[in-house]
C-alpha cells in the first residue's frame, strides 16, 4: 500500500471520529484531493461518498451536489466497481437530502424537482427497498411549497407502509409531520407530535432542536410560555453547537420578538449574521432568516431603538446578500432591507410553485407585530449602546479639553494629534502653557523626543510671558526630567532643584509632584507621601492649578502605603472641587475602586455610575465598558445580582461594538453574575462564548479553562447534568495534564465539582473524583484545599460506604486545627462545619450518644466564628436527637438556646418555634408552648 493511500485512509478514518465542522470537512476535502491527484478512483469514490454526508451536515449544498452527482455518475457507469453502499455511506439514503436540497432553491424549476423525486422513487424500486422514505421526501417538499393536499396524500401513502432501513428516522418523521400540520393551520396536532418527540426523547442530527425551535410560537399560543422558554434555551444551545444550526436560529429571533426580549434577539442576530451568506444554494434557509430579521428588527424599532446600529451588518459578504454597499446599518434600515430581499425570494418561490404560499408566509410574519406574550428572558432592559456626540470644538479651550481627554482618558495620541492639527486658531496667552504641555504629552506618547524638547522651550516662553519666570526657568532647566517616563538621572536632578531655598510655590509644587510620582513608580511610596502632602498644602495655600494633580498623587501613594482613609479624603476633596473632565474621570475610577476595597459598596456603585455617565458623555466606548463592569462588580458585592447583570450586559455590549480586548473577560463575568442572579441558562451562553473567545486567543488557555469550569457549574444549575459532567471531566483532565502549576487549583476544583455532581445523582464514582482531588492537593502541598476535599470525601464515603467516611472527616478536622489564620472563612469555622457534618452522620447511623456532644461542640465553634445561624442549627440537631431518644426534657434548653440565636420573624425562627411548641405541648407545658407560639404570631 502506497504512502498516499495510507494517508487517504487515515484522513477518512480520523474524520469519522470528529464532530461535523470545519476541521472535519477539511480532512475529508484533503482525502478527496489526494485521491484525485493519485488517480485512485475507488478511494476517490469512497472519499466523495463521505463528503456528501460531511457537506450535508455542515450546510455546504454546493459541495454536496457536486459530490453526489459525481458519485451517482460513477455508480451508473460501473455499479460493481462503484456500489450504492460503501461502508456506512449509502447513495440511496443520500437521495433524500438531494431531493430536499433542490426543493429549497427556486433556481431549480419544478420539473427538475419532480425529476429528482421520480428518479429517487425509480432507484428505490429497482433496489427493492421500501418506499417510506420516498413518500416522506415528497411530503416534505409539498409542505415547503404550500401544496398541502398533495402533502396529505404522500403522508397517507407513507403511513400505509411499514418502516424500513430507508425510512426517515423517527425524530425526523414526527418533526416533518409537525411542520405539515403547523403550516396547514393545525397547531394543536403539531404540538401533540412535538410532545411525543420530547417525551420519547427521540433525536437525530438536528433533532429535537429543530422541532423545539419550530414549536416556540405554537407553545406560546397554547399558553405554555414556561415550556417555550425552557425549549428556547436548550434548542438555541444545541443549534449553536450544530455545524448546520443556522437555520434553527430564525425561530428563536421570532420568539424573542413576540416575547419582548428584543435586546437578546438583537444580540443573537449580531452573533450569527455572519452566517447569512453561507450555503447560497439553500435559499429557503436564507428566506426564513431574513423574515425573522424583519420581525425582530421591527420589534426593536417599535421599542424606540430603531437607530441602534446592527453589528456585523457592514460585513461585505452580508451586504452582498442585500445587494447594498457595505456599511453598518441601523435596526430600522436593516429591517427594511430584510423585508425587501425576503419579498424578492418569495416571488421566486411562488413563481416556481405556482401559488402564493411564500407571500402568505411574509404576511403572517408581519402580522406578528400585533402578537405579544409577556415572557421576560433576561433581567435587563435594552442595553444602551449609544455614545454621546461631543459638540464640535469651537474655541482653543474646547480643543485643549478634548486633547486632554484623548491623551489622559482614552490614551489615544493619534486622536489627540488629529485635534491638535485641526486647531486653526492660536490659544490666548493664558492657555498657551496648557497648549504646549499637550503638545509635549503627544510627543512623548509618540516617542518624538525632539518635539518634546521643543514643546518644553515653547512652554517656558509662554510661562515667562505670563510673569511666571521662575517656573519657566525650572522647567527649562529640568527639561524631560520633569515629566514621565523618567530616566536614571531624573531623581537626582529633581532633588537638586527641590533643595533650593528660593523656590516659589508654583515651581516647588511642580517639582514635588514630579518627584513624588517618580518615587511612587520606584515603589518608594513611603518617601513619596510627604512630598505629595507638601504639594497639596502648597497648592491649597497659593491657589495653584497643580492642586488637582497633587491630590490625585497623594491619594495614589497613600493607597500604596495601605492608608485608605486619608486617600479617600484626598479624592473626595478633589471631586468636591471644580476640575476638568479628564481629572474627574481618573479620580472617580480610583474612588470607586477604593470604596470597593473598603466594603463601602453603595458609595462605590454611585461613583462608578457617575464615571459611566462621564465616559458615555465623552464618547469613550472602552471606558464605558470598563466603568460598567466596575459597577457590576460593586453591585455584586452589594448583593444586587440583578443590577450587576444589567451593568455587565452594558459592558459586554460596548466591548462588542468597540471590538475591545475586554470582550471575553466581560462575557466571563456576565456569566458569573447571571449564575449568581439565578439565570443559569443565560450564564451557560455567556460562559460558553467567553471560553470559545479565550480558546481562540493566544496565551489565554488558562482563562478558557476557568470559563469552562464555571460553564460546568451553570450547566449543573440549569439541570443540564450531561453537559456539566462532560465539562468538569474535561477541565479536570486538561488542567491536571497541562503540567502548569497555576492550573493545579483549578484541577482540584473541577474534580471536586465532578464529585459533587455525582453525589447528587447517587453515583458512587464520586468517591474517585474526590480522591483524585485529594491526591493533587497533597502532591502540591495545598493544605487548605486538601482539608476541604477531605470534608467532601468523607461525606461521599458516608453516603456510599457508611462509617468508612468518618476517618476522612477526622482527618479534615485535624487539618483545620493545624491550619494558620489565612483560610477563607477561617479554620475555626471550617472545623465547626466538619464537626457538624460528623455529628449529623453519627446521628443518622444511630450513634446518638456520640452525635450530641459533637453537635454542641460544632455550635460553640460556629458561635466563635460569628456564624450564629449555623450555631443555632447545630444546637437544634442536638435537641432533635435528644427528643427522638425520648429525652425531651433535656432537649428543652437546647431548643431555647437555638431560638435565642435566630432573628425573630425569620423563617428559621418561625420553624424552630413551631417545632419547640409541639415538644412543650407533649410535655404538658401548655403555657410555655403558648408563649413560644405567641412570639411567632407577634
From TrEMBL:
It comes from the Bacteria. This is Tetratricopeptide repeat-containing protein. It comes from Saccharopolyspora antimicrobica. The lineage of its organism: Bacteria, Bacillati, Actinomycetota, Actinomycetes, Pseudonocardiales.
Amino acid at each position: 500500500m502506497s504512502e498516499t493511500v495510507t494517508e487517504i485512509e487515515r484522513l477518512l478514518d480520523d474524520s469519522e471520529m470528529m464532530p461535523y465542522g470545519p476541521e472535519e470537512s477539511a480532512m475529508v476535502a484533503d482525502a478527496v484531493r489526494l485521491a484525485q491527484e493519485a488517480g485512485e478512483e475507488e478511494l476517490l469514490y469512497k472519499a466523495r461518498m463521505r463528503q456528501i454526508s460531511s457537506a450535508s451536515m455542515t450546510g455546504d449544498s454546493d459541495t454536496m451536489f457536486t459530490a453526489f452527482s459525481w458519485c451517482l455518475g460513477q455508480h451508473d457507469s460501473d455499479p460493481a466497481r462503484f456500489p450504492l453502499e460503501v461502508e456506512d455511506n449509502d447513495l440511496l439514503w443520500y437521495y433524500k437530502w438531494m431531493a430536499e436540497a433542490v426543493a429549497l432553491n427556486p433556481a431549480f424549476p419544478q420539473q427538475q424537482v419532480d425529476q429528482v423525486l421520480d428518479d429517487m422513487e425509480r432507484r428505490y424500486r429497482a433496489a427493492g427497498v421500501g418506499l417510506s422514505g420516498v413518500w416522506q421526501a415528497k411530503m416534505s417538499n409539498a409542505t415547503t411549497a404550500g401544496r398541502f393536499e398533495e402533502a396529505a396524500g404522500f403522508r397517507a401513502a407513507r403511513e400505509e407502509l411499514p418502516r424500513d432501513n430507508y425510512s426517515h428516522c423517527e425524530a425526523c418523521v414526527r418533526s416533518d409531520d409537525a411542520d405539515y400540520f403547523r403550516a396547514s393551520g393545525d397547531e394543536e396536532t403539531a404540538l401533540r407530535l412535538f410532545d411525543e418527540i420530547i417525551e420519547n426523547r427521540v433525536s437525530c442530527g438536528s433533532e429535537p432542536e429543530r422541532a423545539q425551535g419550530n414549536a416556540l410560537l405554537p407553545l406560546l399560543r397554547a399558553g405554555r410560555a414556561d415550556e417555550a422558554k425552557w425549549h428556547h434555551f436548550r434548542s438555541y444551545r444545541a443549534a449553536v453547537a450544530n455545524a448546520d444550526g443556522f437555520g434553527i436560529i430564525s425561530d428563536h429571533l421570532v420568539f424573542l420578538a413576540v416575547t419582548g426580549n428584543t435586546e437578546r434577539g438583537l444580540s443573537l442576530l449580531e452573533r450569527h449574521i455572519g452566517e447569512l451568506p453561507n450555503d447560497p444554494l439553500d435559499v429557503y434557509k436564507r428566506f426564513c432568516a431574513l423574515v425573522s430579521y424583519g420581525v425582530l428588527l421591527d420589534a426593536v424599532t417599535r421599542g424606540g431603538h430603531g437607530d441602534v446600529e446592527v453589528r456585523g451588518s457592514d460585513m461585505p459578504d452580508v451586504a452582498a446578500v442585500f445587494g447594498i454597499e457595505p456599511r453598518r446599518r441601523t435596526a430600522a434600515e436593516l429591517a427594511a432591507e430584510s423585508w425587501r430581499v425576503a419579498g424578492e425570494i418569495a416571488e421566486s418561490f411562488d413563481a416556481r410553485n405556482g401559488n402564493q404560499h411564500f407571500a402568505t408566509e411574509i404576511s403572517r410574519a408581519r402580522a406578528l407585530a400585533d402578537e405579544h406574550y409577556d415572557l421576560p428572558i433576561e433581567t435587563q432592559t435594552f442595553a444602551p449602546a449609544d455614545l454621546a456626540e461631543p459638540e464640535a470644538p469651537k474655541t482653543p479651550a474646547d480643543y485643549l479639553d478634548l486633547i486632554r481627554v484623548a491623551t489622559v482618558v482614552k490614551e489615544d495620541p493619534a486622536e489627540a494629534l488629529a485635534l491638535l492639527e485641526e486647531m486653526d486658531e492660536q490659544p490666548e496667552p493664558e492657555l498657551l502653557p496648557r497648549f504646549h504641555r499637550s503638545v509635549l504629552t503627544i510627543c512623548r506618547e509618540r516617542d518624538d523626543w525632539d518635539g518634546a524638547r521643543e514643546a518644553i522651550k515653547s512652554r517656558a516662553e509662554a510661562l515667562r510671558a505670563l510673569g511666571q519666570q521662575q517656573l519657566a526657568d525650572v522647567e527649562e532647566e529640568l527639561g524631560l526630567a520633569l515629566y514621565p517616563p523618567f530616566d536614571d538621572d531624573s531623581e537626582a536632578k529633581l532633588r537638586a532643584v527641590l533643595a533650593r531655598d528660593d523656590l516659589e510655590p508654583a515651581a516647588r509644587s511642580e517639582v514635588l509632584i514630579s518627584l513624588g510620582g517618580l518615587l511612587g513608580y520606584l515603589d518608594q511610596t513611603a518617601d513619596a507621601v510627604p512630598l505629595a502632602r507638601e504639594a497639596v498644602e502648597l497648592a491649597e495655600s497659593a491657589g495653584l492649578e497643580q492642586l488637582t494633580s497633587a491630590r490625585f498623587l497623594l491619594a495614589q501613594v497613600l493607597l500604596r502605603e495601605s492608608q485608605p482613609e486619608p486617600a479617600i479624603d484626598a479624592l473626595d476633596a478633589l471631586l468636591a472641587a471644580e476640575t476638568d473632565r479628564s481629572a474627574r474621570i481618573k479620580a472617580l475610577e480610583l474612588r470607586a475602586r477604593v470604596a470597593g476595597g473598603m466594603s463601602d459598596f453603595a458609595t462605590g456603585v454611585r461613583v462608578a455610575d457617575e464615571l459611566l455617565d462621564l465616559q458615555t458623555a465623552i464618547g469613550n466606548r472602552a471606558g464605558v465598558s470598563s466603568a460598567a463592569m466596575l459597577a457590576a462588580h460593586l453591585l455584586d458585592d452589594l448583593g444586587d445580582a440583578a443590577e450587576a447583570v444589567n451593568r455587565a450586559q452594558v459592558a459586554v455590549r460596548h466591548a462588542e461594538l468597540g471590538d475591545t480586548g475586554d470582550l471575553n473577560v466581560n462575557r466571563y463575568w456576565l456569566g458569573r453574575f447571571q449564575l449568581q442572579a439565578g439565570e443559569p441558562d443565560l450564564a451557560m451562553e455567556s460562559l460558553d462564548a467567553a471560553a470559545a473567545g479565550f480558546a481562540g486567543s493566544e496565551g489565554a488557555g488558562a482563562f478558557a479553562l476557568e470559563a469552562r469550569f464555571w460553564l460546568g457549574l451553570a450547566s449543573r444549575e440549569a439541570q443540564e447534568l450531561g453537559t456539566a459532567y462532560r465539562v468538569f471531566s474535561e477541565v479536570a483532565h486538561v488542567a491536571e495534564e497541562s503540567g502548569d502549576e497555576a492550573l493545579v487549583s483549578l484541577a482540584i476544583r473541577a474534580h471536586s465539582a465532578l464529585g459533587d455532581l455525582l453525589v447528587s445523582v447517587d453515583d458512587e464514582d464520586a468517591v474517585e473524583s474526590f480522591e483524585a482531588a485529594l491526591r493533587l492537593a497533597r502532591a502540591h502541598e495545598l493544605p487548605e484545599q486538601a482539608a476541604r476535599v477531605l470534608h467532601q470525601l468523607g461525606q461521599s464515603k458516608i453516603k456510599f460506604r457508611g462509617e468508612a467516611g468518618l476517618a476522612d472527616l477526622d482527618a479534615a478536622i485535624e487539618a483545620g486545627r493545624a491550619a494558620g489564620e489565612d483560610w477563607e472563612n477561617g479554620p475555626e469555622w471550617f472545623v465547626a462545619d466538619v464537626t457538624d457534618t460528623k455529628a449529623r452522620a453519627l446521628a443518622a447511623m444511630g450513634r446518638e450518644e456520640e452525635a450530641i456532644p459533637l453537635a454542641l461542640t460544632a455550635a460553640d465553634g460556629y458561635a466563635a466564628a460569628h456564624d450564629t445561624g449555623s450555631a443555632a442549627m447545630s444546637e437544634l440537631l442536638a435537641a432533635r436527637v435528644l427528643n427522638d431518644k425520648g429525652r425531651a426534657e433535656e432537649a428543652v434548653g437546647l431548643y431555647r438556646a437555638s431560638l435565642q440565636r435566630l432573628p425573630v420573624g425569620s423563617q428559621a425562627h418561625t420553624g424552630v418555634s413551631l417545632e419547640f411548641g409541639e415538644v412543650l405541648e407533649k410535655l404538658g407545658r401548655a403555657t410555655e408552648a403558648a408563649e413560644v407560639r405567641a412570639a411567632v404570631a407577634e
